[in-house]
TrEMBL record:
The gene is Ccdc27. InterPro entries: CC-FHA_domain (IPR052642). The keyword Cytoplasm does not apply. Keywords: Coiled coil. PANTHER family: COILED-COIL DOMAIN-CONTAINING PROTEIN 27 (PTHR18853:SF9), FORKHEAD-ASSOCIATED DOMAIN-CONTAINING PROTEIN 1-RELATED (PTHR18853). Residues 4-31, 73-100 form a coiled coil. The lineage of its organism: Eukaryota, Metazoa, Chordata, Craniata, Vertebrata. This is CCD27 protein.
Length: 196
């Protein structure tokens, strides 16, 4: 945004300079027109003199006026050429600045689009994280209930003693395996005795 503002300020300065030069050009053209009018006045003045006077005065005045007018025209043509060159350069600079503004705006749009995509990905990841936490809490709750049932079933067997401290998962597994082994041995004994 700062770059765009800077470029726009430069464009405004260049356009102001362009307007100033165009104004000076119009002023020079106006001066040329005024010189033409003066020349016309002199010509009209000559027309009112006698033929001989006209010729004498015409030669002197025309030479002087021609010399002066030629100098003015040369100077003004030189100034016009310089101003036209400067106008062309300013227009080129303005075009370049406009292109830079467009390019900067395009880059800003791309950055905003990338930022929106990243924000969308972040929101999706946050949503997935929340879902994972909910699923983890659910699994943890189910596992804890299952573990408690195993402990209850393991230590509710006749002759078992209640645990004195909180059991580790390995201790629960070992106690469960012991009960399974005992029941399998008991079942084998019953088979051996012919009992159903």
């Amino acid at each position: 945004t700062g770059t765009i503002s800077s470029l726009q300020r430069q464009m405004e300065i260049q356009e102001s300079e362009l307007r100033r030069i165009r104004f000076e050009k119009e002023l020079l053209q106006k001066q040329i027109r005024e010189r033409d009018i003066q020349l016309q006045v002199v010509c009209n003045k000559f027309c009112s003199l006698t033929e001989e006077q006209r010729q004498e005065e015409a030669v002197g005045m025309m030479e002087e006026q021609n010399h002066n007018f030629q100098q003015v025209v040369t100077e003004q043509e030189s100034q016009l050429a310089e101003q036209n060159k400067l106008i062309s350069e300013l227009q080129g600079t303005i075009s370049q600045l406009q292109a830079e503004v467009v390019s900067t705006r395009l880059n800003l749009l791309k950055e905003k689009q990338a930022q929106r995509e990243i924000q969308s990905q972040v929101e999706a990841l946050q949503h997935r994280e929340l879902q994972s936490r909910v699923a983890l809490d659910l699994i943890s709750s189910k596992f804890e209930r299952y573990r408690n049932k195993i402990i209850q079933a393991t230590f509710s067997v006749e002759g078992s003693q209640d645990p004195q401290a909180e059991l580790t998962d390995d201790e629960v597994l070992e106690a469960t395996q012991r009960i399974i082994n005992e029941r399998m041995e008991f079942q084998q004994m019953l088979k051996n005795k012919g009992s159903k």
